[in-house]
Amino acid sequence: MTLRRIAMALAAPVCAFAFSIALSSLVLLAVGTSPLEAWLEMLSYGSRLETLVATGNRATQLYLAGIAVAIGFRMNLFNIGVEGQYVLAAMLAAAAGGAVNLPPILHVALIMVVAMAVGSSFAGVAGYLKVSRGVHEVISTIMLNAVALGLTGFLLRSWLLDGADTTLNMMTPEIPPSGRFPNLNGVVEGLSREITRGRELWGFLLVAILVGVLFHLFLSRTRAGYDLRVTGLNPFAAEASGVHPSSTVLRAMLLSGAVAGLIGLPEILGHAHRYDLNFTQGLGFAGIAVALIGRNHAVGVGIAALLFGWLDSAAPILDVVGDTPREIVSILQGVVVLSAVVAFEVVSRIRRAAEARDAAEATLAPVTAPDGSPS
Predict the structure, then answer these.
(1) Range of the structural domain that residue 209 is part of
(2) Less CB within 10 Å around the terminal CB: N or C of the chain?
(3) Which of 18, 14, 38 shows the shortest CA–CA distance to 314?
(4) Does a structural domain hold residue 353?
């Protein structure tokens, strides 16, 4: 039984990825490129230490984005506003960090608290609109994305602009050294070799791992997490058992926004040390795909984040070597998501049919009396 359950759990992601590779290979053939050469080139470049470091950095942000989305998904809430929440949170947190000079631990803690508070507050608006006015969170969060991005642009051009900067790249004031997060290069180089090309493995990776552990413990070991899961499975049964749906919805949105606020901090604290026009956007929408692939589970989201991070880091080699378009990676990622959704549904139906068959066989089995005789 255990082996069958493990096989069923692995069948969906394996089939989805295999189908995605096959379909992407057909696209490569259609544009006149050898699929085998393209994949081998990506594997060769993607196995270098510097590429793996870049993978870890991108996976850190994607993992936080996936967890932020997964918190809502676990109770059937679609927080599409993660994009706007993390961009606005990153800018305000960077501005706050650049405006003060505190002891290192307090400085970093202040930046993280500001980011989480901004993300949580913005997500809380959508939660309040849902519980008080019945506004669907997809509509409100999409519209709040536009508000957050517009507000980010306005503040960056006016009040939060670094007046001492003379370049055309608008930016907030630089965060002092006390507000920066140390990298993990020493640990990596102690286990392998020196990291070249100026690459640094962001230390915020450890924070992302901690967030994943807390997310798992929250869902599996706390009453609030249990209420969230039960409400997502059956809101009517949850309400009948004493769970207040409105407070659970609001709590889930606040937690999702708080995690969303952390998405931009690995880049702000570990690399740029400020918010500027080069800040990475689009991670909130990518987090939806990561959460779907990872089935909203802390470990599954981590695997999906590593996969997407590796694809993003290995793709640039396609522009340098040969005539393979790097957009094939975007096609691969899209097909992976679509295939995973279909595969998980097919596997879920097969599992339900198998469980129903086992239940029927158990019902029809003869019942043994206490004295050993069939009854």
Answers:
(1) 34-324
(2) N
(3) 38
(4) no
Return the number of other C-beta atoms located less than 10 Å from residue 47's C-beta: 11
Q: Could you list the pLDDT tens digit for every one of the 375 residues in the chain?
A: 567 766 766 777 777 778 888 888 888 888 787 888 888 888 999 999 999 999 999 999 999 999 999 999 998 899 999 999 999 999 999 999 999 999 999 999 999 999 999 999 999 999 999 999 999 999 999 999 999 999 999 999 999 999 888 888 899 999 999 999 999 999 999 999 999 888 999 999 999 999 999 999 999 999 989 888 888 878 887 888 788 888 999 999 999 999 999 999 999 999 999 999 999 999 999 999 899 888 899 999 999 999 999 999 988 887 776 667 767 778 777 887 787 777 777 777 887 787 778 777 777 766 555 555 555
CB atoms within 10 A of CB 83: 26
The domain total for the chain is: 1
Number of residues assigned to the chain: 375
CATH of the domain at 302: 1.10.3470
Instruction: Please indicate, yes or no, if residue 283 is contained in any of the structural domains.
Output: yes
